[in-house]
Amino acid sequence: xxxxxxxxxxxxxxxxxxxxxxxxxxxxxxxxxxxxxxxxxxxxxxxxxxxxxxxxxxxxxxxxxxxxxxxxxxxxxxxxxxxxxxxxxxxxxxxxxxxxxxxxxxxxxxxxxxxxxxxxxxxxxxxxxxxxxxxxxxxxxxxxxxxxxxxxxxxxxxxxxxxxxxxxxxxxxxxxxxxxxxxxxxxxxxxxxxxxxxxxxxxxxxxxxxxxxxxxxxxxxxxxxxxxxxxxxxxxxxxxxxxxxxxxxxxxxxxxxxxxxxxxxxxxxxxxxxxxxxxxxxxxxxxxxxxxxxxxxxxxxxxxxxxxxxxxxxxxxxx
Length: 319
Description:
Helix content: 10-25%
Number of helices: 9
CATH superfamily: Class I glutamine amidotransferase (GATase) domain
Order of helices and strands: HHEHEHEHEHHEHEEEHEEEEEEEEE
Distance between the termini: 73 Å
């Protein structure tokens, strides 16, 4: 017969498992479907970036191309010539002398050796806005996509705005209501992206189009993935599994790895989504985020410029 002391000991509830997750630096930094640790950077813009005033974001893109070529890929746009003329004018004004247009009107164009060669010789590849499915359906699995991936792994900068941002991750949002609380029945349309960034799903025009509900719905379906929402005229610079915020707005990181309950998979389609124990980080200019540890950070000193961003003066060498 057990003693009272033994009975009390046996009735103790077991310690709950810690709900957290860290990954290796290599896993945080590598592109999807690649074992390489890329030497390049990603500049991911939430759309509607300033093209007339100080142009903080596009100036940073231009800084990465100085002394080399900047290729503008208009695959996402239904008006590629207009997009090309707009960004050629902006980047020429910002001091880039070698700006080329890579027009991708159909999938055959992604197999054109001449167009592929333009990207092989580019320091920066910039994807314009439009429809992200146009980018992935034309480029996915093509020699052009492979060339862009190799360039990124070898040190090139890949930049995108709006749809050109969404397509960069391994899974991308392509549709879904963003103007109200997410319903269990609301369809979120997701598709494979180009896979240049792992472990995240990215949404753009974030605060302006009220998209927090749909990004919450996306991470509820798979809490392994971080949700990153980027406001207009705001960008993140990604390198080595970390990113830095710059621009006028905010970046929102939704971390659902500690989620304790959600009804997202329940059959009652008319119910509003429930999601418990979700962490939200709201970040502004100069804040950084470590994808491996899932932690944000402020600069240690006011005005400090993290290494993720180029030195803007012409006399200084961009890092």
